Amino acid sequence: MSMISDLIRKCRSYRRFFQEVEISHSDLLEMVNNARLSASGRNSQSLKYYISSDDETNRKIFPSLAWAGYYKDWPGPIEGERPSAYIIMVNDTEITNNYFCDHGIAAQSMLLTAVEKGFGGCIIASVSREKLRQELSIPQRFEIVQVIALGKPKEIVEIEPLGPNGDFKYWRDENQVHHVPKRSLEEIVLSIGNPT
Ligand SMILES: Cc1cc2nc3c(=O)[nH]c(=O)nc-3n(C[C@H](O)[C@H](O)[C@H](O)COP(=O)(O)O)c2cc1C
After folding, report:
1. Cα of 54 to ligand 1 centre, how many Å?
2. What percent of the chain stands above pLDDT 90?
């Protein structure tokens, strides 16, 4: 398997971490730098980033995040298994209100960088934005887009085919292994013309 395919396979959404394993500021900066170098609609580059890797700030961020919506009985990682760092992605509205799909591309660049360094993370779009803004005194100028939770993954995540009846919900087994169904290549490649 090529390096990039291997990296993308490992680049899963991780939600339980070895909280005591820190990520250095230079590693976090490298993640943001790779987001900086990624594609941007109209090249406006309006996304900016707050980096948190200290316990006090991390504690202010965590309560504003919603984890794994399909796990109704799981309120998110327990103390000790929480992210050791966060990158809060904001949009600078003084540059533009339209960041197209820059946020997804930037998030993937950061997560791939994290995975290459032996870390992992999760995109959290389900954020109590006003609560987080108040906790961190984020100016109105910056629209909170999403939060990237980061750490040293403590969980095994396995990719598998869709479940019966095309069920795409992720699920956790009795050993706490997180299973992520993915549609097959055959299902998603729509032929046109006569591909060989
Ligand atoms: C735009 C976007 C928003 C997401 N928001 C959340 C979220 O708020 N909370 C969460 O636990 N996971 C969130 N995720 C992670 C998805 O649940 C995850 O990508 C999906 O289950 C597939 O798993 P995989 O990332 O390992 O392929 C989000 C992912 C994306 C792309």
Report:
1. 24
2. 95
